[in-house]
């Protein structure tokens, strides 16, 4: 009768354990092949993403060090450094996946519950962010234009914004927000500026900023704003980057959607595997409790308030045997 009850709750795991004599537990036979497969799949998946998280963290730290953000004169403004976002993302990904990795291989219920709760929160946040982005899609262009104008105004003073703007203009072959004359809003490229950059554009706007294919000509865009479009088209890119970004998104919409769905699917699958592994651990633990020659607690598990010292010691030995078997 007891074996029938356990089989109805835990399936084939109970039949494997219940065949041993009372008071003696063979925990290594407590899981099915599928349970072991899911356990090591969860471990390997989290190990892979832990490595990715460490790489992201390393890139962020490299960016901070290369810009000398920890120097005494810059440490006061490090809180506004965009590289901190990369560092934070790398640290969060590393800690999250490491908890899942260790929790899976050590069968630690606390780490697995923490990991599954964090994954569930991430899935919820991503779904909410998608809904918000869809509802504000008409305003995203305005936010993007405002951010790009800010980057152009602070182009010479903020190395991070300068790097972002240069990458956008180089890769999308564009110049300015709407057109190349937008650079007039910059203090140094304004036509009334006294310097050599007056009425010019950055070198990343140039069609061919390299002389003879090797030497970078940082002044190839000098005076470009004074040229009409016909004369300037052989020297610089005429189109604005806002249109370039829109075209790039439209061109790669399928790829972006596929990657987003794949990432979301991996997270949902990870959550399912973690839940299945937790159920298996508790199931085997419940059987172990029932085979002991002592009363079972009202709620099986290590967190039960009815556990006495002897039972706690048994649970410790139980999982120690599992991890060394």
TrEMBL record:
It is a multi-pass membrane protein. Gene3D superfamilies: Tetraspanin (1.10.1450.10). One of its GO terms (cellular component) is plasma membrane. It is found in: Cell membrane. The keyword Glycoprotein applies. Pfam families: Tetraspanin (PF00335). The keyword Transferase does not apply. InterPro entries: Tetraspanin/Peripherin, Tetraspanin_EC2_sf. Keywords: Cell membrane, Disulfide bond, Glycoprotein, Membrane, Transmembrane, Transmembrane helix. GO terms for molecular function: enzyme binding. The chain crosses the membrane at residues 40-64, 84-105, 111-136, 253-273. Interacts with ADAM10. Part of TspanC8 subgroup, composed of 6 members that interact with the transmembrane metalloprotease ADAM10. This interaction is required for ADAM10 exit from the endoplasmic reticulum and for enzymatic maturation and trafficking to the cell surface as well as substrate specificity. Different TspanC8/ADAM10 complexes have distinct substrates. Belongs to the tetraspanin (TM4SF) family. This is Tetraspanin-10.
């Amino acid at each position: 009768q007891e074996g029938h009850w356990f089989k109805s709750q835990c399936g084939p795991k109970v039949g494997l354990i219940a065949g041993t004599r009372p008071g003696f537990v063979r925990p290594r036979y407590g899981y099915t092949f599928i349970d072991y497969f899911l356990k090591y799949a969860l471990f390997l998946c989290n190990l892979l993403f832990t490595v990715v998280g460490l790489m992201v963290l390393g890139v962020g730290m490299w960016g901070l060090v290369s810009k000398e953000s920890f120097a005494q004169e810059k440490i006061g403004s490090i809180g506004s450094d965009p590289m901190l976002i990369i560092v934070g993302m790398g640290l969060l990904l590393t800690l999250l996946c490491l908890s899942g990795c260790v929790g899976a291989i050590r069968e630690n219920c606390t780490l697995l519950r923490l990991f599954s709760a964090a994954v569930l929160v991430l899935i919820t946040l991503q779904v909410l962010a998608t809904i918000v982005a869809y509802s504000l899609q008409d305003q995203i262009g305005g936010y993007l234009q405002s951010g790009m104008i800010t980057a152009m105004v602070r182009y010479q003073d903020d190395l991070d914004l300068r790097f972002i703007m240069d990458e956008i203009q180089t890769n999308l072959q564009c110049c300015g927000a709407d057109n190349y004359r937008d650079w007039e809003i910059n203090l140094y490229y304004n036509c009334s500026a006294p310097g050599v950059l007056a009425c010019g554009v950055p070198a990343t706007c140039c069609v061919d900023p390299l002389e003879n294919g090797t030497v970078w000509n940082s002044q190839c865009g000098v005076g470009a704003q004074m040229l009409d479009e016909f004369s300037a088209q052989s020297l610089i890119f005429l189109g604005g980057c806002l249109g370039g970004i829109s075209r790039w998104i439209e061109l790669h919409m399928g790829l972006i959607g596929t990657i987003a769905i794949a990432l979301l699917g991996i997270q949902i699958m990870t959550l399912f595997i973690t839940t299945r592994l937790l159920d298996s651990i508790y199931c085997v633990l419940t059987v172990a409790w029932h085979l002991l020659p002592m009363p079972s607690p009202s709620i099986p598990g290590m967190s039960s308030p009815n556990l006495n010292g002897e039972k706690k010691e048994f649970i410790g030995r139980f999982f120690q045997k599992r991890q060394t078997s």
